[in-house]
């Protein structure tokens, strides 16, 4: 199985939708996500997310355990976020992540 799909599945298990509108999503993150620290680099996650073209901002609220993401709805339709949180179409989302990784690494040393 693709490692991205497994990571997506694991992270999604700790997240639940609070609210979303086109271009903005707010997600509750369970404190139990710390269980993944040995498998997923959670500390770099916000850095990587913010560098993705089409993501305008990522705001972590550790006090209430939520993440708010402002994004370009044309690049990331609401359905992608809902699929991610529900563990649906993870292969398609993984392909998008692989493309983003390539772009990220290509631009990392510019």
TrEMBL record:
Superkingdom classification of source: Bacteria
Pfam annotation, one family: HMA_2
UniProt name for this protein: Cation transporter
């Amino acid at each position: 199985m693709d490692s991205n799909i497994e990571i997506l599945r694991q992270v999604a298990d700790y997240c639940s939708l609070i609210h979303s509108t086109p271009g903005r999503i707010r997600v509750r993150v369970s404190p139990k996500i710390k269980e993944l620290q040995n498998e997923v680099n959670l500390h770099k996650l916000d850095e990587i997310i913010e560098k993705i073209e089409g993501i305008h901002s990522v705001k972590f609220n550790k006090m209430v355990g939520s993440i708010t993401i402002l994004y370009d709805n044309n690049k990331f339709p609401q359905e992608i976020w809902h699929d991610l949180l529900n563990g649906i179409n993870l292969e398609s989302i993984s392909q998008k992540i692989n493309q983003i990784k390539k772009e990220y690494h290509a631009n990392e040393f510019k």
